[in-house]
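lol ok so funny story. i was supposed to be doing the assay writeup but got distracted and ended up predicting the structure for this chain instead. priorities right. anyway since i did it might as well share w the group, maybe its usefull for someone
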Amino acid sequence: MDDLIRLLKAWRFWTVGALVGALIGAAMFYVAPPPYRARATVLVDFNLEQAWPQETDRQQFYYLERETRKLEDVAWSDPVIDAVAESDGMARVSELRNEKLRLSQPAEAGWHFYAEDQDPRRAQSLASAWAQVFAEQVTQKVDSSDGLNSFIEVDATQIESLHTERSIPLSTYLLAGAIAFLASASFLVLFFIRPA
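and the output, tada:
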């Protein structure tokens, strides 16, 4: 109880500490900024009503899950990632798969293709190329009945003039800096600064 009272009495210290921590977080944001993130969108329509017109909900659920997994496999397939690397000219396939490209939680409706890079134009270019190549590959596979249901339709709805922002906002750095400083300060007050 005495320790808690001692912590609460140091409110001026906490206020200044939170401010200092936030300033340190802001400095980190500008000294070592996070990469830019661009997002492209492809509209995926499974046409469930046509594919399973009279079947049970359970069968429809399994159909959606199965086809979604197939489309995810297409998004990360060698031909798609190789084509994105080739369009960029500088990226390696391993770099794209492990560092630069992210796929949003896929389902029916908009699939978001994210690309991160320190150069905002390159992030836009990667995201746009990935979404476009994915849409082309899926359309080819649907037209040739190559493992995908013929009712699936895809449309690259947003692949030009993509919005780009930092992958981690400044506010997160400010909050993390303030919390880290306050946690350190609490530890310091409780264990190293003895009351007079």
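The two ends are 17 Å apart (CA to CA). Helices lie at 2-9, 11-31, 48-51, 57-75, 78-88, 93-100, 120-143, 170-191.
back to the writeup now i swear
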